[in-house]
Structure to design on (372 residues):
């Protein structure tokens, strides 16, 4: 084997080794974090008329939100860390849908100007599929990160909307910064 | 010898990589399989409700850290409702601290931890009654929880509340805060 041939072999081998040294430990830590206990986000502020801006100021936190308008956002308070959203659920407490009506419940991430950055999940509830009094799980991807600059919110909307649906929410969020921090060797602290 | 070392190192790395990938995959699968990855959690905030015990009664009412219990509100029962969990929670410790108390009442005033279903049906009592007038102010005191841990479970479709009961409607008010430790 000549030296150029050896170099051609060594470069990809080195790159693969470095990648494995990053990806494997990061994957291990991520998997461990997902099995650790999470924070429960249940209290949200409610806002409409997006995009304009997101304002928590002067708005009360609620565990159950009224939905008397066709386009409302139930926004979880801003947090100073990166969070992995591992589970999310909603609970509709009353059925006021008339036949033919439907409401959409999206889990979204928003920036501070009120722009929807990403739709994490989308669910349509009709008068046939509404299930009151039972927590309904939202389908999420394995990795759903929310940064310290962005809000997580449930967006509840419909074309035609009558009545007042009372909805509760619960999100399980893992604090990735404190989680990763606990894995650092003491010398870095 | 050199060749043997190379094979040994490559083999070692391959085993480590496979083992790591298996562990990651197992971890991710476990995470998606578990209904809820609850850990220990302390509840400190709730919603005061004077009319109705159904969970939808808290709709539109603000979350507060202190309950507002008053005896002159035309009702003998007021509830401070904690958020309904989507997974099983067991209450392991419950404490209260009366921050403010005003009035010299004639009737008995009690607080009790109770569990209701979402439609407001009373299900069970979790603690002994606390006589508010015999409790210290500005000090943390424990609720005496039921001995049977099965009774301390709050399942999905249920919620926990502190039930304030007054014998007499009169000018009396107090504002307690709570720490409910759940597993």
């Amino acid at each position: 084997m000549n030296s150029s041939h050896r170099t051609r072999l060594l470069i990809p081998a080195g790159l693969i080794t470095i990648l494995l040294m990053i990806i494997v430990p990061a994957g291990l830590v991520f998997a461990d974090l997902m099995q650790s206990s999470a924070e429960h986000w249940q209290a949200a502020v409610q806002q409409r008329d997006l995009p304009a801006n997101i304002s928590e100021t002067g708005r009360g936190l609620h565990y159950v939100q009224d939905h008397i308008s066709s386009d409302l956002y139930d926004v979880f308070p801003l947090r100073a860390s990166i969070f992995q959203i591992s589970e999310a659920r909603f609970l509709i407490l009353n059925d006021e849908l008339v036949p033919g009506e439907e409401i959409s419940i999206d889990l979204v991430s928003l920036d501070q100007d009120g722009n929807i950055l990403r739709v994490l999940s989308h669910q349509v509830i009709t008068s046939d599929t509404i299930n009151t009094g039972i927590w309904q799980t939202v389908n999420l991807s394995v990795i759903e990160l929310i940064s310290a600059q962005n809000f997580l919110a449930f967006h509840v909307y419909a074309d035609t909307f009558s009545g007042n649906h009372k909805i509760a929410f619960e999100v399980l969020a893992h604090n990735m910064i404190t989680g990763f921090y606990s894995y650092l060797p003491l010398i870095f602290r | 010898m050199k060749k043997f070392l190379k094979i040994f190192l490559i083999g070692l790395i391959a085993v480590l990589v496979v083992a790591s990938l298996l562990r990651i995959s197992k971890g991710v699968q476990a995470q998606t399989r578990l209904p809820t990855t609850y850990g220990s959690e302390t509840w400190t905030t709730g919603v005061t409700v004077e009319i109705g015990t159904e969970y939808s009664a808290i709709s539109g009412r603000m979350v507060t850290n202190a309950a507002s219990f008053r005896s002159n509100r035309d009702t003998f029962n007021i509830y401070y409702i904690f958020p309904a969990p989507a997974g099983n929670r067991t209450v392991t410790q419950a404490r209260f601290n009366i921050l403010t108390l005003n009035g010299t009442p004639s009737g008995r005033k009690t607080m009790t931890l109770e569990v209701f279903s979402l439609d407001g049906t009373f299900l069970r009592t979790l603690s002994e009654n606390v006589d508010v007038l015999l409790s210290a102010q500005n000090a943390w005191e424990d609720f005496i929880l039921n001995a049977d841990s099965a009774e301390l479970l709050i399942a999905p479709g249920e919620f926990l509340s502190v039930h304030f009961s007054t014998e007499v409607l009169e000018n009396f008010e107090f504002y307690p805060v709570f720490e409910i430790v759940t597993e």
